[in-house]
């Protein structure tokens, strides 16, 4: 990169240098400075319920093994044999007491300790096995979701999530039973930079009313819903949390939209009846329990959710020009079997590899990425100044810095945090520049 990294995003004027989506050197810096230091989503606790259960995952481009220990804790370690670097485990998941490298047979226990080396006495008489285990990551969970971080200096997960927890609870904490993951992780590839996906999910309600999703909404419209109830939302808020990007579009009371996306059964389950009442009690208001749908959010950098629709995905980067999407769906653990099945059916139809709405979003990102192959196409900044001059305020009901649902404040928060992560030498420096929640961030 020939430009100063700090100049690539201009917060004051809402300008994005397109180079951040294409530059290979910047991408390598992202792997080190962002993916090497942030809390990254690895899945849901119910995906590995029993001792010995494991799944293979990624932290950025680094493959890892996520494995349940006998004491109930979870270990995460690099899926790389220390002998010559072969993947220690090549399965997607399963149950195992140990992992044996398929190249020369070094074996690791389920916590990632090297426990056996073939012909060790004869061939490696001086080898100390305790020195040759794979790199281990910090692991913490939030209401069922498993996160890991390579950086020992990073704040704990609770601090990192901050104000975002309140919004995550609308999906994760509607019942004392918590959530469970529906079986299976869907994985697919999109030819676009990871930031297009992560930013859109944290901030962009603007695209919903244009070509992007109108046809999908119309195609899935239940007979009971009048299309006039499925207009793009006009009420709602957007928030930006201090660790950036934990932004969210959020609107309230536009019930037609949830029905058009997820059908009448889910609408009824989510907005009326005992489950909604319980949620209202737990979340502290009827609005939050039964009407706070249509939310979308990103936990920086690559973990996005659609509470209400309940898809959760990680946008794993694969170079500056490609992502692998890993996606699963959660449901209230105590929901009736019929509702769980309906969530499975509807999320496959809407937000999945072949889902109508994921198709719409992906098509835009792929086209942008393709346009950015042009030299002139990268010569001028993108515009992210929506609602830039509006005063963003504190709101007693909604934590974070609050702006209108049609704003790019959460996107600006996302890129401001990106910029901080790309320029701060360590977490001590990041903590020193932590924005104050509820402050006017345009100041
Ligand atoms: Fe794993 Fe040789 S690379 S045992
Ligand atoms: Fe979309």
Automatic annotation (TrEMBL):
Domain Rieske: 39-148
Keyword Transport: no
InterPro entries hit by this protein: ARHD_Rieske_2Fe_2S, RHO_NdoB-like_C, Rieske_2Fe-2S, Rieske_2Fe-2S_sf, Ring_hydroxy_dOase_asu_C_dom, Rng_hydr_dOase-A
Gene3D superfamilies the UniProt entry points to: Naphthalene 1,2-dioxygenase Alpha Subunit, Chain A, domain 1, Rieske [2Fe-2S] iron-sulphur domain
MF terms (GO), sorted A to Z: 2 iron, 2 sulfur cluster binding; dioxygenase activity; iron ion binding; monooxygenase activity; oxidoreductase activity, acting on paired donors, with incorporation or reduction of molecular oxygen
Keywords: 2Fe-2S, Aromatic hydrocarbons catabolism, Dioxygenase, Iron, Iron-sulfur, Metal-binding, NAD, Oxidoreductase
Pfam families documented for this protein: Rieske, Ring_hydroxyl_A
Protein family per UniProt: Belongs to the bacterial ring-hydroxylating dioxygenase alpha subunit family.
Listed name of the protein: Terminal dioxygenase, large subunit
High-level lineage: Bacteria, Bacillati, Actinomycetota, Actinomycetes, Mycobacteriales
